[in-house]
User: What shape does this take?
Amino acid sequence: MDSFRDGFRPETYGDRIADVYDAMTADLPDPGDCADRLAELAGPGPALELGIGTGRVALPLAARGEAIPVTFGDFANVPVEPAEGGYPLVYVVFNTFFALLTQEDQVRCFAGVAGRLAPGGAFVLTGFVPDPTLYTGGQSVRASHLGLEQVRLDAARHDPVTQRVDFQHVLVTGDGIRLYPGAVRYAWPSELDLMARLAGLRLRDRWGGWRREPFDAASGLHVSVYEHAGVAAS
Assistant: This one.
């Protein structure tokens, strides 16, 4: 019996971590560069974010005048009505796409995005570049934060067959221990490109960061920009 997978639900991660997520991600790069690139791509909008979370990116965009509808639902289905003429920008950032835990759901999401993307519009997807060497014997335990008053341990188990990683963020403080479980189904950049092709999209750009850094073998993350395959190359 696999107790983690039996008990984990799509809403588990968000329900557990929502009240501390912004504090736990405070050491990540400022989302300003991300908002700059997305605002350029969105133009006057509207923009559609999949997996909006705490609004770490959506709120800076909204402050710049972007129109960002909010709908509750399974973003694998892209459960929003198409904007008139389609959305100039659809985006899913900070590994959120990998929260879809099967290849089938990920392919379905690409298809849903393609049906809502305006001609000439952009679908921006960012995620980490998988590194199976992180998991010795299929698992890992790392101290991601070590302070005088608290320590955060990240424990993970890797299934290379399904490309799934189940994990626990374990926060230990003087007040006790808190657990923040999560799971991702990672996909290689080339696999994402194939999903795009199946949906009638193609890769326009791929950067190693939000400042358009080159993407190469040393890149730990990618910013991938897709467009309808019928659009002339820019």
Q: What stands out?
A: The helical segments are 3-7, 12-17, 21-24, 32-42, 58-63, 103-114, 189-198.
